[in-house]
Design goal:
- The complex is a heterodimer of chains A (170) and B (748).
- By secondary structure, chain A is an alpha+beta fold.
- Chain A has two domains: 58 residues, Arc Repressor Mutant, subunit A (Orthogonal Bundle); 83 residues, Glutaredoxin.
- Chain A is 44% helix and 11% strand.
- Chain A is built from seven helices and four strands; from the N terminus they run H-H-H-H-E-H-H-E-E-E-H.
- In chain A, strands 2-1-3-4 form a four-stranded mixed sheet, covered by helices on one side.
- In chain A, strand 3 and strand 4 form a beta hairpin.
- In chain A, helix 1 runs antiparallel to helix 2, helix 3 crosses helix 4 and helix 6 runs parallel beside helix 7.
- Chain A is elongated and about 50 Å long.
- The N and C termini of chain A lie far apart (46 Å).
- By secondary structure, chain B is an alpha/beta fold.
- In chain B, strands 2-1-5-3-4 form a five-stranded mixed sheet, with helices on one face. In chain B, strands 20-22-21-23-24 form a five-stranded mixed sheet, with helices on one face.
- Chain B folds into four domains: 92 residues, Ubiquitin-like (UB roll) (Roll); 123 residues, 2-Layer Sandwich (Alpha-Beta Plaits); 352 residues, Rossmann fold (3-Layer(aba) Sandwich); 123 residues, Glutaredoxin, CATH 3.40.30.10.
- In chain B, helix 10 packs across helix 12.
- In chain B, strand 3 and strand 4 form a beta hairpin.
- Chain B is globular, with a radius of gyration of 30 Å.
- Chain B contains 25 helices and 24 strands.
- Classes of the chains: A alpha+beta (170), B alpha/beta (748).
- At the A-B interface, helix 1, helix 3 and helix 4 of A face strand 7, strand 20 and helix 22 of B.
């Protein structure tokens, strides 16, 4: 036996354990597909094909139906996203208040090409959303759960740089 | 306030019209009776107005997406008639300027993103989009395409998908889900990005599609079409070295005429034979002959099972889409599926076995072509298990549609052809072999056989009208002598799914279950001519039963050429040679081609691969708990560096799950203790092997060390005793076969 006293017998919580727990929590109920996918995405940060197939199998739904739901909603992503998600509001109010400038500045700071939304180190993903419902704060940027309003391009870059510094990539 | 109905009532009374049962509505100024129609569209069509639709099929749920069946109703505005419930007194207009313009505009928008290569499209001539463009007088498409072309899907031998021709009506999605209970294709993405296809943008050949082709049957455009094999057949016909024989399925003769202006159900056997000879086929035979053989074998198998009371109910195996469905979804029921090959494959095996000698040629100079109403038969013919002695038993499969196209290509005037007769001996059949083409036909043919077997000198019954019809699920009890047979007849795989679940749950006591994947049986197959006649299936079935009446013999065992085949080639019914040529075995099949989930990856050089199957059957048998237990154990023992754990979606051992592989050993019905013991054993060996190698060679470069370890592992693998826990993949179809228990199975 290889187990020694230095390595205590603690089961490591893997994403698969979490996936099983989610399915248990929703009682393998196929009508709860959307909340299940939301919870799974919180765990994996995206919806990998094999995980979706597992969900389909466990819920006894055709994989094509699960894929259809996952690909329909903008909230769900089938590609891995970065650790920090930067969402810029590009609704009418934010757009006229300068979202395109913010977006260009942030993308330039993160060195993202036109085809890229996620940095190669998987730290940041930049997205735009149609409206965050906070038009009074336009232009609005949400990083992870934090809302930042009435920003200039420089403000926005500064906020991103602070996170880069925390992550040690500045 | 008076309702609209009341006011119409009043208006009618004022005009002196009495509104009694049935109630009426007004369509374009005409009074039309409401006679239990489900929706307004059906009443409008009954009134002789063919409102255009893409997404309406009477047998599918109402979708209301294509917006072409729009009408104006007084007090309601513009609505889609397919999704409007008919009410008394409605005043409906179908042909106003606004409606006409809107319909045109809708079709024009569809055309903008449509692949407009109509001249070379497989659906040209029977395409709804093409027809409507002409009917609605669209002469110009003012919009540019906004989508980049998507790749074609030619991954299956049966069907082709061209997403660039899709109008997103969803007919295929609904037929696959509602009628077939599968859901292999669905909508994906949203808005202008929407496509229809298999999960994860994969190809049809990589998912759970059973090739029934019902999606192609309902597709209004060329987005899903049967995959043609015409070119290969012409090539064989033009090759002077090849003798090309053809077998024609029963359902073809009552539908082929439709492609040449004849009514559905017209028996066109004679003209069809003449056309096939004119095309250049050397011999023209009848799959109904092989259907007679099927009855002999299947009834023999059934009576043996009935006598022993084992593996009942017996499911039929004539329909390859159903067989694939059972292999994918009901691994536990495979022992209940008859081991008989389909008539197409029985014919192929017998033809390739006997015809070369008879015609004085070698096997490789004989090409066997089938004409089938079916797309699944194309995939069936290409299965490895149906290729013997270096070549397939059936070389090419054409649909009824493809035969019609070949006849058109030759320029033959089909209607004017003089009838010719089929070639002997495989062209001779009884009526029992002909009715195979309709749902209930196989059951009736077997019932006739059983009735004659137990007739005890009395005149046996021939017509079993109680099993006929095209409802999705029918039941009948047939009594012959003191034998009572409880039959169930299903068509549409969703009905089969429901029935199979009941059989699994022990919730029914049928003896014999006939399954046909397509609604109505083979006559409703996806290879049949595209028709607008909603009653075509019933008419084709009537044609088959009429053909049966016209023949002299109605019971398969009376076929003298079947007797001759048993006397000279096959030996006893159900015997060794018959089993070799006419029976097959089934295997459980995975539904998705996916690598699986890599859940733990060790960082040592030598690692043990542990794979747990989490496909549906294994999942239901507790694979998830087993997998979690294995991962916990690996962590608990701190051997995670030495182990890779992967969850895979199917190891095709579904009836014996949960299945786990540890290294190269396969454990079926695996328990956590079994897995733990095997992991212990294998990891200890790896660790020991690494320690020895490292001690023996203290001064090694990293590269040398890697090599040493690799060769040590190789030695270890070579010296290991054969894995005791690995079980052979037993063929399931052998159950009930005499050769299986006594002399070992004779299957290849």
């Amino acid at each position: 036996m290889l187990a020694t006293e230095e390595t205590p017998n603690v089961a490591v919580e893997t994403p698969f354990d979490a996936l099983c727990a989610i399915l248990e929590r929703f009682e393998y109920n196929p009508t709860k597909l959307i909340p299940i996918l939301q919870a799974v995405q919180d765990e994996y940060r995206y919806l990998p094909e094999d995980v979706l197939t597992y969900v389909a199998t466990a819920l006894r739904l055709p994989p094509a139906r699960v894929y259809g739901v996952a690909s329909f909603y903008a909230h769900f992503t089938l590609e891995p996203k970065g650790k920090h998600i930067i969402r810029l509001c590009d609704g009418t109010a934010c757009h006229v208040k300068g979202t395109p400038k913010l977006l260009a500045a942030i993308r330039e700071r993160l060195d993202l090409s036109e085809a890229q939304d996620t940095t190669p180190d998987m730290l940041f993903t930049v997205e735009t959303v149609s409206c965050l419902g906070a038009c009074g704060l336009a232009p609005v940027m949400v990083i992870d759960e934090a809302v930042h309003g009435q920003l200039s391009a420089d403000d926005a870059v500064e906020i991103v740089e602070a996170i880069m510094e925390e992550e040690g990539v500045a | 306030m008076r309702s609209l109905c009341d006011s119409v009532h009043l208006a009618s009374r004022e005009k002196g019209i009495t509104m009694t049962n049935p109630s009426y509505m007004t369509i374009d100024g005409r009074q039309v009776a409401i006679e239990g129609e489900k929706n307004l569209l059906e009443i409008i069509r009954k009134a002789g107005i063919d409102l255009p639709t893409f997404c309406y099929h009477s047998e599918l749920s109402v979708y209301g997406a294509c917006r072409l069946c729009i009408v104006e109703i007084e007090g309601m505005g513009t609505v889609t008639s397919c999704s409007t419930i008919p009410r008394e007194g409605m005043v409906v207009r179908t042909n106003t300027e606004v409606l006409r313009e809107t319909r045109k505009y809708t079709v024009e928008l569809l055309l903008a993103d449509h692949n407009q290569s109509c001249t070379t499209c497989g659906k040209s001539g029977s395409c709804t989009l093409q027809t409507l463009t002409r009917r609605l007088g669209i002469r110009e498409v003012r919009f540019d395409a906004t989508r980049d072309p998507l790749p074609l899907d030619e991954s299956t031998p049966s069907l082709m998908r061209d997403p660039n021709s899709c109008v997103l009506c969803g007919d295929c999605v609904r037929v696959c889900t509602e009628i077939q209970g599968i859901g292999a294709i669905d909508f994906a993405s949203r808005g202008s990005e929407v496509t229809v296809g298999p999960a994860f943008g994969r190809m049809l050949g990589d998912v759970e599609c059973v090739h029934c082709g019902q999606c192609a049957r309902v597709c209004p455009t060329g987005a899903i079409t049967p995959k043609p094999e015409i070119d290969e057949v012409w090539k064989a016909i033009h090759d002077p070295e090849q003798t090309v024989v053809v077998q024609v399925a029963p359902a073809v003769r009552v539908a082929l005429g439709e492609s040449f202006g004849m009514k559905a159900g017209t028996i066109a056997t004679g003209k069809m034979v003449a056309a096939l000879r004119a095309i250049g086929f050397d011999k023209v035979y009848d799959t109904s002959f092989a259907a007679d053989l099927t009855v002999m074998e299947e009834a023999h198998e059934f009576l043996a099972r009935k006598a022993n009371g084992e593996n009942l109910p017996q499911f039929t195996s004539c329909c390859p889409a159903w067989v694939t469905f059972a292999e994918q979804f009901f691994p536990d029921l495979l022992p209940n599926v008859s081991s008989c090959k389909s008539p197409q494959q029985m014919f192929g095996a017998l033809a390739k076995d006997t015809l070369p000698a008879e015609l004085g040629i070698t096997r490789d100079k004989l090409t066997v072509v089938s004409i089938m109403p079916c797309t699944a038969k194309k995939a069936e013919a290409k299965l490895d298990k149906f290729a013997r002695n270096g070549g397939p038993d059936v070389d090419h499969v054409l649909t009824t549609q493809e035969l019609a196209r070949m006849i058109e290509e030759t320029g033959l005037s089909f209607a004017a052809l003089e009838s010719e007769s089929l070639d002997m001996p495989f062209g001779f059949k009884t009526g029992a072999g002909v009715i195979f083409g309709a749902s209930g036909g196989v059951s009736e043919a077997v019932a006739r056989h059983v009735a004659q077997t137990f007739a005890n000198g009395e005149r046996p019954r021939v017509d079993f009208t109680e099993v006929r019809g095209d409802q999705g699920l029918r039941e009948a009890v047939v009594t012959a002598g003191d034998v009572e047979v409880k039959l169930a007849i299903v068509n549409g795989l969703a009905n089969a799914l429901m029935l199979a679940e009941r059989v699994k749950a022990g919730d029914c006591d049928y003896d014999f279950i006939e399954v046909m994947a397509c609604p109505g049986g083979c006559i409703g197959g996806a290879g049949q001519p595209v028709t607008k006649d909603t009653a075509a299936r019933q008419k084709r079935a009537r044609g088959l039963y009429e053909d049966d009446k016209n023949l002299q013999l109605h019971v398969s065992r009376e076929n003298p050429f079947v007797t001759h085949a048993y006397d000279h080639v096959l030996g006893e019914v159900g015997g060794e040679k018959a089993h070799h040529l006419l029976h097959t075995a089934y295997q459980t099949r995975r539904r998705m081609a996916l690598d699986g989930m890599h859940l733990m990856t060790g960082d040592e050089l030598d690692k043990l691969a542990v794979t747990v199957c989490v496909g549906t059957s294994c999942h239901l048998r507790g694979a998830q708990k087993l997998l979690a237990g294995i991962m916990d154990y690996v962590n608990e023992r701190s051997i995670d560096g030495y182990v890779d754990v992967k969850a895979t979606f199917c190891m095709e051992r579904c009836d014996r799950g949960p299945t786990v592989t540890v290294g190269e050993r396969v454990f079926e019905r695996c328990t956590l203790d079994m897995a733990r013991a095997a992991i212990d054993e294998e990891v200890d060996k790896i660790v020991a092997c690494q320690t020895v190698t490292a001690q023996d060679t203290p001064y090694l470069t990293e590269r040398d060390f890697e090599r040493q370890v690799a060769s040590g592992l190789l030695r270890f693998l070579q010296n290991r005793r054969p894995a005791a826990a690995t079980q052979e993949n037993t063929p399931h179809g052998c159950h009930g076969c005499a050769t299986n228990t006594e002399t070992g199975c004779l299957h290849e």
